[in-house]
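$ fold --in a.seq
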Amino acid sequence: MPKATSDRFSRLHKDSQSESSSARNPIFNTERFGQHILKNPQVAQTIVEKANIKPTDIVLEVGPGTGNLTVLILEQAKQVTAVEMDPRMAAELTKRVQGKPSQKKLSLIIGDFVKADLPYFDVCISNTPYQISSPLIFHLLSHRPLPRICILMFQREFALRLGREAEYRIMVSSIRQCATIRKGGLCDACGEFSGESGPRDPPPPVRFEEFDGLGRIVFSRRNKTVHGNFMAKGVVEMLERNWRTWCSETNQIIEDDVNMKAKVEKILDDTGNSENRAAKMDVDDLLKLLSAFHDAGIHFA
């Protein structure tokens, strides 16, 4: 894609206003970062309304783009922290609020959200870059203290997964569909998805990194058996390295002829999960499996 010129970005705000009125093309695709800029004011207003922002709230916005959502959030929130990957978009957003009262309420972080150290926030709103949907969810869930609510836009297929799969349900107490969106505005047809979710509070008594590591193995191939996923190339070797590290840190004797494959298979058999398929497992199944591995000194992070 040709490099954008400054003239092009100076026209974005005017273009968004003119095009949103016709509602012919509510989403502008920036291929470099997989980001989609909302241009339909009805969609942006609906997302902000669903957040029920209080005047005392600090809001985290992920992927603000040129600020079509940001300017609406700034009208209601005490403070907004926006995390933007694209420096060009960050510059446009800065220019958009420059000299206005809302400028003092906006803090901008330029960089990768998944790697960013997040400050305190009460509410998260995101027109999520689709390529970071899953990492974004887990990064939000690992943040402390927990936010009150998250209003997130995803592709419909991913959004539907959030409500039915244990790898997400273990950390999220409630997920509710707010609206489905397509070109032209709000509708009941397929397209992008705006969802509302609340983290479990208190969260499950497990380290997030441990559960995430287990989930990556179990859900790597959802329709395969759990045994098949653990026997995939490199998994047993990785678990043995983790086990040896744990033994070293806890002054445990390391067996000379350890058979990690047999250890893993015994745990799967003893917990009754060997022939289970990931798509059929629930939260209790995963917690019991994780506990059994930990009892054997096998960790995932």
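$ fold --in b.seq
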Amino acid sequence: MNSRTATSKGPLIVQRRVVKAALAAAALVVTAGCSSGGSGGGPPGDGLAPSSSGPVTGSASAGRSTETAAPARGSVKVVRTVTEGLKSPWGLAPLPEGGLLVSSRDEGTITRVDEKTGRTTELGQVPGVAPAGEGGLLGIALSPAYASDHMVYAYFTTASDNRIVRMLYDAKKPPGEQLGAPDTIFKGIPKGMIHNGGRIAFGPDGMLYAGAGETGTRGLAQDKKALGGKILRMTPDGDPAPGNPFVGSVVYSYGHRNVQGLAWDDRQRLWASEFGQDTWDELNQIKPGDNYGWPVVEGRSDDPKYHNPVAQWHTDDASPSGIAYAEGSLWMAGLKGERLWRVPLEGTRAAAAPQSFLKGRYGRLRTVVPAGGNKLWLVTSETDGRGSPGKGDDRILELEVK
């Protein structure tokens, strides 16, 4: 297929430094959204109550923010550490035959983790990855036809751009040689030292969605002909998907700063998490063709031409990366916030104020993925250059939610 460029802590957990004092619910701190790190540690098997501090929330159409206390709604239990010793893990893709594929941002490798034993096997290195800053080998996803084609898709930064490739995964070959040559399906997504986006996921419609950051060049986000600051939607071959809002374009929504979380709820509605600059991180419900405001608006506004977030957080408390849907809620991994947020849903709005779990216990949290039923896989991110890695970092955790 021709390339296309668009034109329009196992079982041992080490206790880290003392967690920052809890913030008062009515006085949350405002700081920069491109997060620097922190740390934490805690024993596996902890049943943890939510933290007392919470974000500002409200309906997607609300013009002004209101702050509400999060009611008690159960717990999150860390069942076990699946594996540890991972280096700059970023994307996670569960295999239908068993096992977890995890990408390393800085090493440019994809590794298979046996979710029962924790044993790791390196599939191989993705050629052309040029890690620097927030760029490198980022999101991975399995083909919708994986059972027959065994294709793994990856979003990564090269010397010139961000691009999406697909590779044949052949487990019968020796370790280190199990990835086929990359077939570039889409290229030309702008790159930068920051804000490369990078999350990819196949939707219920079989189309491939990608979060593309604005690379720190803010004007890209409002330019509908540019690829930066967008959510992109394309066919598995990299063509503009049927039904896209802008004819002949892969652009699905715009006005984004740096989307790193994509997930669908049980009604097949798309949600996305987004890093703010200095004030508000966002959880958005995505509508095709809508403008999400950046850089004109950060968080909610009274201007009806911008789609307001369903929930927003001060950047110290979130700096969100991956999101997942499970048990009626969206789960959002926080980097600088060093916690896992739960947002219970009622239609296209938050049913109650979000609540947080695991605050400071495992450090920066990068990716969260459904593990079936009431289970989640959670990937830490202490070795990404902004954390304070301890023994065993980074790790994949298995969580049970109630």
